[in-house]
Write a structure and sequence with these properties.
alpha/beta, TIM Barrel, eight-stranded mixed β-sheet, about 20% strand
Length: about 230
């Protein structure tokens, strides 16, 4: 179900103007999540019919480059393939934000050529520490499978990690970069404490810009392109 829409965004896909569609289901409980109200109480946000979404897309098609589907975890939605087929029929580009827990569905989307860009969140090092960032026990084999599928897809992509003091250290971030095995693009995102799901994190001071930049520098030799977003 689509529970939220941003008609026009310049921030969700570098260099593109997109409509953003928010889904409410998620199989993670990341303590630093900013969209947690969608997960805790989705009924607060009226369901958007595809008819209304499609009408909006047709109205703004000359202005928009594409659509970004985010969440939540969009690949949990049974209608995801149908939505993407309709987006592509409108001649629009499609970007997916995912946590990488549904590699089988991801592979089908690539087989049908329904995606033009994928951003996958890699929450932490690919071991038992993943729980600390994801809030639940994750199937790391599926995470690793999604990484491989995305890297071999032939489309543009990025892996990204939100860097949270108390959850991530420089060593953790470097381990993630190495585990990605020379991806095209790796993004470090500055943690924003305001409105984090875990109220205790709202009082946590984000890492200083210099610390994030130092992490990025350490990772840069292990990735194709290193990007930092959200610095103060």
């Amino acid at each position: 179900m689509i529970r939220g829409i941003i008609d026009t965004s310049f921030l969700d896909w570098d260099g593109k103007i997109v409509m953003v569609l928010y889904t409410a289901r998620c199989n993670f409980r990341c303590p630093f999540c900013h969209n947690w109200e969608l997960l805790e109480d989705p009924d607060r946000y009226p369901e958007k019919s595809w008819r209304s979404v499609s009408a909006n897309l047709r109205k703004h098609r000359d202005f928009l480059d594409g659509v970004c589907i985010t969440g939540g975890e969009p690949l949990l939605e049974p209608d995801i393939m149908g939505w993407l087929r309709k987006i592509k029929k409108l001649g629009l580009l499609a970007k997916l934000d995912t946590n990488g827990t549904c590699p089988e569905i991801l592979e089908r989307l690539f087989e049908e050529k329904l995606l033009d860009y994928v951003a996958m969140d890699v929450k932490g090092p690919l071991d038992k520490r993943y729980y600390k960032a994801a809030g639940v026990k994750a199937d790391l084999e599926k995470i690793e499978s999604s990484i491989d599928i995305i890297k071999s897809s032939g489309i543009n992509y990025e892996f990204r990690t939100t860097v949270v003091p108390g959850i991530h250290t420089k060593k953790d971030i470097l381990e993630i970069a190495k585990a990605l095995r020379k991806p095209k693009k790796y993004v470090l995102q500055q943690f924003a404490p305001f409105h984090a799901w875990d109220e205790k994190l709202r009082d946590v001071k984000p890492y200083d810009n210099e610390v994030i930049e130092d992490m990025a520098e350490a990772c840069s030799k292990h990735v194709g392109k290193m990007v930092v977003r959200g610095l103060k």
